[in-house]
């Protein structure tokens, strides 16, 4: 559990690859970090979750965002999040297969909090997800809502 946090960490995973979703969920589950994870399989669904204010939906403390998404590209999602006064303080971790320098530069210009390229190798992918979990959920102090 994250020191000093009594409520679970709310994570929004925006990822269209079901295999990556399953693997990320499994790594977080194995780490026994007290969290809940919502999944959006496209950019439009992600923005619907973020804009929903029905009192029953938990607001995310952290967003893991793929760039190459159907319906609404991850870059558009990032632009909307960081352009919204209420959403912009949520840390956004770009987790993508793209290692293109222009994607890296563009997302940092749009105030992404970090950029991680997904490794192709399964063991390396697991290590990357564990590193995200360790840094963002154990070391970093996240804003409370």
Strand % is 15-25%
Q: Structural class, from secondary structure content?
A: alpha/beta
* Physical arrangement of strands within the biggest beta sheet: 2-1-3-4-5
Q: What is the terminal separation in angstroms? A: 18 Å
Helix content: 40-55%
* Rg, nearest Å: 14 Å
Strands, count: 5
Question: Which whole number gives the mean pLDDT?
Answer: 83
Tell the overall outline.
Answer: globular
Low-confidence stretches: 1-5
CATH architectural group: 3-Layer(aba) Sandwich
Structure description:
The structure is a single chain. By secondary structure, this protein is α/β, with parallel strands linked by helices. It has a five-stranded parallel sheet, with helices on both faces. The protein has five helices and five strands. Mean pLDDT is 83; it is low at 1-5. 40% of the residues lie in helices and 17% in strands.
List the SSEs and their pairings.
Elements: E1 9-14, H1 18-30, E2 35-40, H2 43-51, E3 62-65, H3 74-82, E4 92-96, H4 101-109, E5 114-117, H5 122-139
Parallel strand pairs: 1-2, 1-3, 3-4, 4-5
What does this entry show, briefly?
The chain has helices spanning 18-30, 43-51, 74-82, 101-109, 122-139; strands spanning 9-14, 35-40, 62-65, 92-96, 114-117.
Question: What features would you highlight for this structure?
Answer:
145 residues; alpha/beta; Rossmann fold; 5 helices; 5 strands; 40% helix; globular; disordered N terminus
């Amino acid at each position: 559990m994250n020191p000093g946090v009594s409520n679970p960490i709310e994570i929004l995973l925006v990822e269209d690859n079901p295999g990556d979703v399953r693997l990320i969920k499994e790594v977080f589950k194995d780490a026994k970090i007290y969290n809940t994870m919502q999944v959006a399989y496209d950019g439009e669904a992600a923005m619907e979750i973020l804009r929903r204010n029905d009192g029953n939906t938990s607001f995310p403390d952290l967003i893991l965002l793929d760039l190459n998404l159907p319906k609404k590209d991850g870059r558009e999602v990032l632009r909307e999040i960081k352009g919204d006064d209420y959403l912009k303080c949520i840390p956004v971790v770009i987790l993508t297969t793209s290692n293109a320098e222009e994607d890296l530069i563009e997302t940092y210009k749009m105030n992404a909090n970090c950029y991680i390229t997904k490794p192709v190798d399964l063991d390396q992918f697991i290590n990357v997800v564990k590193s995200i979990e360790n840094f963002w959920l154990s070391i970093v102090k996240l804003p409370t809502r």
